[in-house]
Amino acid sequence: MHLLKGLARVPGEPGAGVAVVVACVVLVVVQLRHSSSAVRRVLGVVPPAVGTAVELAVGYVAVLGFGVSVGLLCLPAASLLLERRRVLVPLFGASAALIELVRSGSVRDAVDMTLIVAIGGVMLYAVTTLALFAARVHAARLTLAAAAVTAERLRIATGLRSGLAEGLKEVRDLALRDDPGVLADLIGAARRTLAATRATAAELRSLSLAPEAASARALLASAGITADLRVGHSEPLGPAGTVLAAVLREAVTAVVRVGDARRCEIVTGERAGQVVLRVVSDGVPTAALGADLLDGLADRVREVGGRLTAGLEPDGRFAVEAAVAATPAPADAADPPELRTVLGLYLLVLGTFFVKAVLLVPVPLLALGAPCLLVFCLLQIRFATRDSPRHARLVLLASAVIALVPLPWSGRNWIGAVGILAGALLFALPLRAGAALAVAAAVAGGVLTGGGPVPVLLAVVDALITCVVVYGVLRLARLVRELQRAGAGLARAAVVTERLRAARDLHDLLGHGLTAILLKAELARRLAVTDADRGRAELRDIVRLAERGETELRTVVSDSPRLSFEAELASAAGVLEAAAITVEVDDVPVPPAAGAVLSVVLREAVTNILRHSAARHARIATSVTGDAVRLEVENDGAPDGVSAPGSGIGGLTVRLAAIGGTLAAGPDDGWYLLRAEVPAG
Predict the structure, then answer these.
(1) Domains of the chain from N-terminus onward
(2) Torsion of CA 524, 526, 531, 532, to 10 degrees
(3) How confident is the model at residue 644 (pLDDT cuts 50, 70, 90)?
(4) What separation in angstroms does the CA of 634 have from each of 621, 638, 654, 669?
(5) pTM
(6) Distances (CA, A) of 482 to 133, 231, 381
(7) Residue 662, strand partner residues
(8) Were both Cys, which of 68, 93, 160, 447 would link to 62 (CB 3.0–4.6 Å)?
(9) Roughly what angle, to the nearest 10 degrees, separates helices 392-404 and 415-428?
(10) ∠402-406-408 over CA atoms, to 5°?
């Protein structure tokens, strides 16, 4: 507005007009040093105190020397707040009030203008500070998720040590006795530990239906059945996940085994506090036999307070539906301080508007105008403190009536209500519709204030400036809420991913090892009579396997599994070559700490190639640059449409972020490239 007034003075007062325009531009540019990295680079050599001094000097010269409105001083006021020069703020405010008092001779006008400077400075401070805060929170979300993973890993470790670790120790101690007479006890201990391992892995998987859904899709595809998977539930699931996974597994197995289905739908959702799973197929034989196959599952579902039904749908398809109680949603986290700050600032905006408007409402209309202003402010508070307020359209309509109807009689400051209304419209509606209605409201408000073209234009600009400020504050409040929810959601997803990783490692590492122990124990028992020396050799192998199992158990719950990257690289190349994939390896020695982390990444990358691609060529490369170690794994078999990494990659992203590393995965010139970079130390 000050810039427009300066431009308007150029024809009649060229020198003064140009000086005002230059002053406005200088103030804006210097003010942007707080929020614009480009401006900071240009002004990087200018100390903050010098920048603030320039703003103060330019502001006072424009106000005192060229008659510019005192409201222009809101820009240096914001800089004083941003640079925490709080001692100067009261003095600055007093100087603004004194200038306006001398200029107008009216205490009311001095108070009004001081409020304008104060609210303008505070809002510039708020928008700048909160925008920077949003960027910091966005960058910190991975750190928050990593902390959640660490806490979950500690919880898992406690459970494993109290059960599986004791079982492995018992197996090792019995084998160390080198006595065939303990083989029966050893076999019993190994079986109990293997059962506990499988149960623990199942419990860890229970938070998510994703593994079972992926297996179901693969099983249906192998049988030539089109799978339509639609996920509508929220995770983690808790105990419900184990039961629903069993239902999904058995229902899909029944479709494949006994039906002639060509299409199978798997749908999950939430209804009345329950997680609902539906498996619907078009195979007629499944309709005849499926219910009998699922009788045992119905009992399991009832044991956890759920229900299972199976039968024909009206369209002739066969449906299996299971519903179990959903895990109670986590309690809403308390509003972060930044959200309370932005809402407090919005209350300050409304309070200042109320005082300013009341000051200029004609005395005969004050008894009606003040209650109308209060109702308007209360409606805006309700609108601002909720993401999706009930009756939002009714609130906006009532606000529009209060903002526009009294304008011809209520004083010039009432135009602020139109600006607040325009900001709410821009915030609540889709961008195009909201912008159109916001501009229409501002123009209508300007016309209703009356006067000639210039006063109307200034009123419209005033309303639009208020609109932008209100929209910025409301948008930042929503952004803070969204970032809070996103951080919590990412943490929950990371915990689910970590539990799935632990479940996979338990199955792949401990499960296979304990199975080998059982086989060797059975062999040793048979050899005890025919070949005692060989039987004792088997016992020594059992000791070695049990010790390796204890090491692998520690690996499952370790933040950085103690894996040898060289060994993992050789294993990865061998696995890919066994799958008829030509492998090019371009490696350099990597530090042990970085290699331990990259081993996990390499294992996940190779698993994804085998499971999700039709690769014929792959390349694995490592490099060390400065203090960073980089791993690249790429293949030429990326499926069409792949654009985002899966949940396993998401978990690795969190893990690498916790140690200052990065991970990226996606299509790259016809190939699929995974790139991980971690600190060398």
Answers:
(1) 1-105 (no CATH), 239-325 (3.30.565.10), 565-679 (3.30.565.10)
(2) 50
(3) very low
(4) 9, 9, 21, 11
(5) 0.49
(6) 13, 22, 19
(7) 677
(8) 68
(9) 160
(10) 150
